[in-house]
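2024-03-11 09:14:02 INFO worker-7 job=invfold-0412 stage=load source=structure_tokens
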């Protein structure tokens, strides 16, 4: 599942993951991170998520990364946001008030671009990646985040034998294995959301556990 897969998904409008409203778990649990209103936050693999706007509305300075140029340009046009654009190494920086989206491969992002980030909102990023890439993703994220950064992480867990990803199933044990070297991991909430995803029911799933984790650095 490389970046071409995602660029193609966007160009074919296969974006079933996109939500037409703010994510309810972000709205409910974000305050638990206690990030100052003007603090900087990072949204990896952000697509054209409206959660970028919700975080901006809280007063945060928001940094995202997204590989699809179509996703980024659509985000700015659909939300009537003016932007400036510049090339920095192999990433394109799209910037508007309180918001920067780096367009390019997440693995090309470096720690200077995330200087001052205090919180991360990860929805549908970790679960977007197959196992091998997921480990590389978590390692790179840990390498480039400032030491004191907290992460609000949303995952799905289901019987992977019954359906192929994405989204891929990520268990609590997977989250521990990926992050416990640097973070204390707390499960904040979980619920079976299979009834919200009839397409997954059709693929044979009878449960789909959505889990919300708070990761605090030791
Ligand atoms: C499942 S979507 C989730 C989007 C967003 N987080 C949301 O909640 O709507 C995963 C996104 O990651 C992007 N993506 C996948 N691999 C990437 C990579 N290596 N670097 C940057 N973006 C990537 C895809 O283009 C896609 O928009």
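2024-03-11 09:14:09 INFO worker-7 stage=emit residues=218
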């Amino acid at each position: 599942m490389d970046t071409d897969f995602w660029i193609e998904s966007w160009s074919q409008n296969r974006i079933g993951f996109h939500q037409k409203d703010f994510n309810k778990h972000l709205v409910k649990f974000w305050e638990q991170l206690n990030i100052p209103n003007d603090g900087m936050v990072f949204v990896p693999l952000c697509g054209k998520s409206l959660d970028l706007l919700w975080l901006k509305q809280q007063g945060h300075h928001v940094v995202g990364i997204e590989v699809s140029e179509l996703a980024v340009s659509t985000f700015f046009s659909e939300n009537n946001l003016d932007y400036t654009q510049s090339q920095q190494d192999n990433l394109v920086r799209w910037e508007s008030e309180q918001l920067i989206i780096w367009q390019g491969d997440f693995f090309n992002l470096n720690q200077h671009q995330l200087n001052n980030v205090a919180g991360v909102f990860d929805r549908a990023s970790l679960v977007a990646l197959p196992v091998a890439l997921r480990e590389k993703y978590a390692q790179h994220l840990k390498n480039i985040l400032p030491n004191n950064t907290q992460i609000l992480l949303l995952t799905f867990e289901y019987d992977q034998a019954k359906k192929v990803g994405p989204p891929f199933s990520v268990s609590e044990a997977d989250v521990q294995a990926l992050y416990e070297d640097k973070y204390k991991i707390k499960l904040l909430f979980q619920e079976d959301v299979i009834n919200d995803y009839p397409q997954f029911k059709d693929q044979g799933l009878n449960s789909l556990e959505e889990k919300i984790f708070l990761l605090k650095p030791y």
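2024-03-11 09:14:09 INFO worker-7 stage=report msg="DSSP finds seven helices and nine strands in the chain."
2024-03-11 09:14:10 INFO worker-7 job finished
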